[in-house]
Amino acid sequence: MSTSQRPVLVLQPSVNTTTVTTTTTTTTTYAPIQLPHLPPPSSPKDPKSYPLLHANLPQSLRRFPLVFPNGARAIFRDGDGGDEDMQEDEEVVSGVGWRMLKRDEGLQDTNVVGLAEAVERYGKKRSHNSDDMMEGIEVPSGSNATVPPPRKKARAAALPQISTVNAAAPPSPLPSPHGSPSPENIWPSAPPSGTSSPLPQAPLQPDLALTTLLTLPSLLSHFTALPAPLQSHFLLTLLRHSPLPVLRTLHSVLSPTLARDFLTLLPPELVSHILSFLPFSTLARASRVSRSWRAIIDSDPVLWRDLLKSTKIWFGGDSENSFANSIYASRRHAMRNQPPVPNPLPLPHPYKMLFKSRHLTRTRWVNNPEPKHVSFPAHGSSVVTCLIFSHGRIISASDDHSIHVYSPDTGERLRALTGHDGGVWALAACKDTLVSGSTDRTVRIWDLATGRCTHVFGGHTSTVRCLAIVKPEMIDVERDGVITKEKWPKRPLIVTGSRDHSLRVWTLPRPGDAEFRCFGDEDQVDLAEVCDADENPYHRLHLEGHDHAVRALAARGRTLVSGSYDCTVRVWDIITGTCKWVLVGHTQKVYSVVLDLGRNQACSGSMDGTVRVWNLQSGQCQHTLTGHTSLVGLLGLSPSYLVSAAADSTLRIWDPDTGELRHTLASHTGAITCFQHDEFKVLSGSDGNLKMWNVRDGSIVRDLLTGITGVWQVVFEGRWCVAASNRNDATVLDVWDFGNENDDDWLGEPPGGLYDEDIFSDDGDDDDKIKFYKNKRFDDEDEEDEDDDDEQADVDAMDQDLVPSESESFVEVDAPQSRQTNSQRLQTESRSSADIEIDADTSEGVEASRWAPGAAARQNSRLKVSAVSSSSRRPLNLAEPSSSSGPARTLPNNDETPTRPRIRTHHTNRRRA
Predict the structure, then answer these.
(1) From start to end residue, where is composition biased (Low complexity) (predicted)?
(2) What is the pTM of this model?
């Protein structure tokens, strides 16, 4: 009870019924009786000494009924409750020409009548008529009602003043200083009568409850004067004589007050140790107990790290650190862009967010029998060559020259990016920036927010077959035998690989940087001309060394790994441009590479059916993984698994540390055309089926697609899965959502653990650290390969390079058998002595090759070239360089596939010094 307010005792109106010839019912309403104040605890008023001083009483103790011996009823209301109910009751009490005052109305100027005086007045007064007034009744101002004077009557003997000291008290261990008068003498059943008219009864007959309420201040003063042991003994005696309902009421008051939050009192290390014994489901419930528990549990990195390890979803540290760094980067970015919002709770640690995401990834994909599924057409009937999922957007590219952006929720096409003059065969995205490579030999950069093409980079002389965005990250760098952590590259880079046998390194433009196009907006684009990359301020390096088309690449930090049709794998430093290693061992073309910086190794898959694991520090082949019987065209790497997919219709799961074969996935009946995996599952497409496998035991989980013509691409991240397939000669995109309504914070981990947050922050220009070296070409002996006709069908099915376009052009070259095989003849690009112009003063360091001027001149006599279109096989003689007097040369057809390149016309290719 608040000490600033007084408790009141509300008397129930008494009813006096007199029966003569008619029945008259008189209802008398009494003003609330103010009970005496309870004194506050004696000094000191320390809340710690009086923990229940400000405790909230339960509702049952703030308002409860009382019944007195004569049947009268009253309601006890504590001083801090029941005001609204009182006002409602008081407003009902009114009559003709009068109304009852509200509690806070007129009491300051009106004397409050005590209980004894009110009883005395009831004994001295009688009602004249229905308009009589009582104490506490106010006549409204301005009323014309006249009130007759009260009738004279005999004055009753005055009752003695009631004192709380003289009032009867309940049994107490303390003696009463005065004798208690008999209640019958103090509270007569009816006031003295001076007339025969009916009189109202006395409001109540006092009993032990009322006398206790009246003497409670005295009892409280006695109790506070007792020593603490005697107070405890007295209260214990009372509690021992209290019934169970009373004890329950006291328990409801004492428990919240005396409770102690042990988690907030213990040291953090001990709290973390105690919570480590709880399963994650109990931790989730415990975090909802209170704000302090929520803050303790959410912000404990050790707790969630140990939980990740105990549930076997901790993958070694690199992926976990990358996730945490991305969360911190996104929070820094949010704080810079918008003012901080006050939050009483600290933000959860990234490990807690990671645990929830991985737990959902592990369970939802298996336990959700009917995920949300949307299917919609895309790209007409053209082949989907690239498919990525980035920041809630589906981005698909096709050999119809277009790039489309779709919403995964509805399947609505958000953007159509047009501008390429050839099929798009390479894509990479980073936030709102998209980079694409095409058969038109250009690299284009797009703003996904607006759909504009902001940059066009030229320089490659054939199809841009593969590309990657290299994002800055902390890597191990060895300097003078000491390994330190450094951030490389300093700015995001683009690495592109082409069928022109070379790779190029570009700076990824920031949003808002000056736009660059290798040709003007209004210029007629002549695809036969090669753009000079030296004029491009974003061009950094031209990496030459491969003797055939660059088919695959992977890049992180300062390391670039490229795989080529020349059967070699090369390791480059993309900052200096030096070729660190030429990895020789494959006997046929290299189709896929992956880079594992954590283990300092790279893996490559080849047409020879093997997967080789290379040591990047020594350049040696650590493992040769055998088992596939055909082209290994696809490789995937996660922290714990290396997965290879081949044209022999199988996928194999390897241990990247030891090279041990863990599982063979062999339920497909055709070449594997696409796949992706993480630490829980593998999704693979082939022969009209899209299957999901358990990566840990190699079992089939479910079939996502069946009975279709073919599956071209599949990609997943977090709750989303997207597949591009062909059905009835139409291209279709299927989207599955494995999340529930409450899974909005399900964060997916991108393949390779590369995140986009803050890639442009703390950019440093490292151009001063770049040294351009003239790359030495390693003369690798060309190994003679004989293609098996029976195997070629599966190889063609897996290699999308062989998908025909509407019209094709290819080059046939007659060369010595020791230098070129049959398959190389169909894929070798013709060059003449005029294709390369090297000044005498810059020819040093340019090695002799079959494309050098002398070698080209010697081969001119044996070079036979014919261009074939889809409608005719009219030969076109390109053996001799064109001249102004000769006939005009026919431009090559724009529609080409990556293995059937466009024939280059005469141009000047200037090497970068």
Answers:
(1) 862-874
(2) 0.64
